[in-house]
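Annex B. Sample input.
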Amino acid sequence: MTESAGPKIAPGDILGWPILKIDYPTDADRIAALLPPGIEPSASANVHLSIYNFPVPDEPEYGVVVSVDADYRGTPGLFALGYGIDQESAIFISRDMNGQPKYPCAITYYRLGASITARCTHQGYTFIEFKGQTTGVAESPEPFAEHEWWVKVSRAVGGAEKAYDFPPHVVKVATTYQTFHQETVEGELVLRESPWDPIAELLPQRGDLSARLWTAMPTSREITLEGALDPDGFWPHSDTIGGSRWPGSSGGPKR
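Annex B, continued. Sample output.
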């Protein structure tokens, strides 16, 4: 048997699982429609899916991150639409403290040899499905920085129109990553219709996808409260599905 060139972890250890990274292009106007005023579309129009198993803080959290290319004050980054996770204890503190758009989601994600399988299910709807095969080791990039945008906001008690207890502010998540290992993956991504996670409807695939297994660790991570967003302009974006940033006005469940 040929010994794998990949990273070595202790049998059964959840620390060190690779993240399944899937990127695909979509329509620029579809992304623009989901961004609140003050967060701008980037020059590129890509959707980024990250499906993972990682200890948070010390037990496995399976999750899926859906984000899109977006800039804030001229800085390119990613606007997070949702963090679907299977660990309820991390949902509310993350959302209330930092604006991280977490919500409950059932995740299936595993590797068997070269075969990669992932499914994401919320309220009985499987809205993301991926099956693929690894095709080889990819070159690891140099350490790089990534900016992700969240929104911290609290609508006023009682639900008064355009009233907030805490008006919308951008939260910047600045992370520097060191890549240890990457493997390319070829496979098929299926986006299924769901009233809870309308990725198939609002962010359709418009070109070839790329996928990889990415093993990395953050060497630094800073979460900071940035500038305020226009509260009146943000108001239509305050009605969301669950703890995500999918718009409640999409025709699906509102809360």
